[in-house]
Design goal:
alpha/beta; Rossmann fold
Length: 217
């Protein structure tokens, strides 16, 4: 039976899951156990956030589901690290049509990502490379690019731009610094922007970008 903590944290997103919420929660519990085990020897997340993993990491990741369309079948995650937001999204989409591609240059973190995928039976491709080492033909044109706690917005735009197609969107987790980062980014990059308040951070947003392209000087 699902714990009250789990239901309270992620229950609001259950209508976007590809399978029963109880199955998603079981897989997330297994993911949490692996995260705790690996955290002892590999810095995957901030140590103080482990005790609040359901809200700080799982719900924070799953809120991206609100912004995904049924036709968003290819998701590219940059700087996947400890697996957020990608792995909870993959777990929630398990058995569906979505294909996930994760990019992470740290070999030990890649080992963790592949271990979780193997033990939970998740269909995912993990590149052990930096984003600028990947030919976009290897990934295909994604519908959505995600990233969480990786870099400033101007840097994320630079990293994402080679993968953008005409209909691609980027959805980035950003904190209270998002206003300043948008100003900095807008000096160099053109992008249409939609801001959605974060469900887990009172000062944070999900920042959705469309029509990303470098401004001509």
């Amino acid at each position: 039976m699902a714990s009250p903590e789990a239901v309270a944290a992620i229950g609001r997103y259950a209508d976007r899951f590809s399978r029963p919420a109880a199955e998603v929660i079981r897989d997330l519990e297994s993911f949490a156990a692996l995260l705790t085990k690996w955290q002892a020897v590999q810095n995957l997340v901030s140590r103080e956030t482990l005790k609040d993993v359901w809200t700080r990491h799982f719900a924070d990741s799953l809120q991206v589901l609100k912004l995904l369309d049924d036709s968003d079948n290819v998701i590219l995650d940059l700087g996947s690290g400890g697996g957020f937001p990608a792995l909870p999204l993959i777990i929630a989409s398990k058995g569906g049509q979505r294909r996930f591609v994760l990019v992470e240059p740290n070999g030990r973190k890649v080992s963790f990502l592949r271990t979780v995928a193997r033990e939970l039976g998740l269909a995912v491709t993990v590149f052990n490379k930096r984003s600028d080492e990947i030919d976009s033909r290897e990934t295909g044109v994604p519908n959505v690019i995600t990233s969480r706690a990786l870099a400033s917005l101007p840097q994320l735009c630079r990293m994402s731009a080679p993968f953008f197609g005409p209909e691609t969107r980027a959805i980035f987790h950003k904190g209270r610094e998002h206003v300043e980062e948008l100003v900095e980014s807008s000096a160099v990059w053109h992008h249409d922007v939609l801001l959605t308040p974060s469900d887990t951070d009172p000062q944070g947003v999900l920042l959705e970008l469309k029509n990303l392209r470098l401004k001509t000087m």
